Amino acid sequence: MNFFEMVRFAVRGLVANRLRSALTTLGILIGVGSVIILVAVGNGSSKQIQDNIAKLGTNTITVMRGGGGFGARAQSRNTQGKPLTVGDAVQLSDKKSAPNVKQAAPVSNATSVCTNGSSSTTPASFIGTWPSYFEAKNTKVVKGTYFTNDDVTEGRRVAVIGKTTASDLFGEENPIGKVMRCGGIPFSIVGLTETAGSNGFLDGDSLIISPITAVQRALTGYGNISSIVVQAKSAKVQDQAQIEIESILDKSHGISNVNSRDYRLLNQASLLATTTSTTKVFTVLLGAVAAISLLVGGIGITNIMLVTVVERTREIGIRKAIGARRRAILGQFLIEATILSLVGGILGVIVGFIGSNFMIVGVKPVIVPSSVFLAFGVSVFIGLFFGGYPASRAASLRPIEALRYE
Predict the structure, then answer these.
(1) pTM strictly above 0.70
(2) Cα gap 103→351, rounded to integer Å
(3) Which residues neighbour 337 within 8 Å (Cβ) at sequence distance 6 or greater?
(4) pLDDT of 194-206, one tens digit each?
(5) N or C: the chain end with fewer CB closer than 10 Å?
(6) pLDDT per residue over 232-251, tens digit each?
């Protein structure tokens, strides 16, 4: 019996039990489709997080008040150390002291209810800063313009706002040139930022950015600032820029022991690397969970093929009695199992591609090609592996015993 005859016999055996074959195929389909979709969700989630971090600038370092660590000791350092000031930002902008720093911008965070007539909103972020902040944080203006260094020097009450703030206060109207009141103080709107989207629980478009002098004069008062945003000249020199920042701040804050620093640094590149590593583990775990359903599908193939062997014992005996070799019987049942897994694998890939075109838990799945080939390859291997025992059992039946079977 040649290969094509074995395939014909295998197909005939599967067609004779259509419902059982379909249900077995369904198990493999679900397994393959689940692997592809869940890995795509993990990869899409990773890409989404990386894009959000990249929007903040991958060569950005944020200086914040407070040393590292937890507990009373860390809290003591946070309250007793020197606060961050605009003077610190000026020093970090010095090209001689920090040659690898492109620019630095102080940030003063305010909280205020802003109104326009009967409309009001409390922006998630109300930032007082310098114009260099926009480039450092990769914040783009799509309508109007940025405020200038002259606006900072003169303390002009102008503002660049986000889409959510504009919608809350002005609806569908163009906000450029209009005036809003924050804490009762009028601010003229000069620009509208590019849509940033939400980042976790924070709406990136619920935003107001104004000259730091205007914010301090109207809302926060002069003195301490919340943080300093520092932009390295490139991602390649970010580590050198961080060393320069630490050297300048250690000197200005009178710090001799690095363990007693009253500030901490958030390196966007390090954050991106850590997040990427974490999301890769998350993606692998999702794939591993989905792979369990493939294993279950393989066990289903074993079960069905064992039942098939029992049902067709007399047929096997007759075929052996008229001269069918062990290889032919073994090949036929192996082919049956492989066809089940092959068809299930193909349909699973199709389902995986279709399912990945939809948003899942707020994430746009991104298919990983390797997961498609791996899931399909494993499905075929499962057919051969889990179909091997039933096929071997069928091929090992003695003709006389098979013919006696009722």
Answers:
(1) no
(2) 50
(3) 301, 305, 383, 384, 386, 387, 388, 390, 391
(4) 988 776 567 889 9
(5) C
(6) 888 788 889 889 999 999 99
